[in-house]
Amino acid sequence: MNGDAGFAWHVVIPVKPPARGKSRLEAPGVDRAALADAIARDTVDAVARASRVAEVVVVTAASGWPEGLADSTPPPARARPSAPIRIVRESEPAGLNAAIRRGLATIDRVLPRAVLLGDLPALRPADLDAALALAGAARLGLVADAEGTGSTLITARAGTALVPAFGADSAAAHRAAGHVDLGVAQESTLRRDVDTVEQLRAAAALGLGSRTATLLG
């Protein structure tokens, strides 16, 4: 377990099969399924390299996980070993919140838990660490996306129930359920999720993960 036990977060990431992922993301000359897969894998790699993460739980019906999960960053460039990645299989995709609940059910409630969406290709581990440090002081925490309406991260301290409400206007839904905004900077890479080409361009300006960057050339 990494770091102080109070900050050793278990993070659930739902990942759709690439053929079903990112239906609104049509980058010219780039296969959408391959792009969705690259974005998800870059996100998982970044989360695993955050120092406050004890375990990453990927919930997916996609084939090819965990094969090929290792990041291409040379080991000397890494500050610490990556957290373990555990795969929870879905026989068929059952929806975003159902997948998240499936992953959360495999984690003891006495542990601090978080849910992060798998569409943050510019995510820097340090930005996630900063948010999780703030989450240690909140019973239920929230990071809204760059537009302010969606949620990219929700958290629950040890012993607190975590109920996902992702979908349209999820930030408002999570606030209504008791989540408080964690005060993450607006320019944080943790806020830049990607569903459209315009959002992908904004993420690229922050610096994309290696798989997504390579795919986009």
Automatic annotation (TrEMBL):
It comes from the Bacteria. This is 2-phospho-L-lactate guanylyltransferase. One of its GO terms (molecular function) is GTP binding. The keyword tRNA-binding does not apply. Keywords: GTP-binding, Nucleotide-binding, Nucleotidyltransferase, Transferase. Signal peptide: none annotated. InterPro entries: CofC, Nucleotide-diphossugar_trans. The keyword Transferase applies.
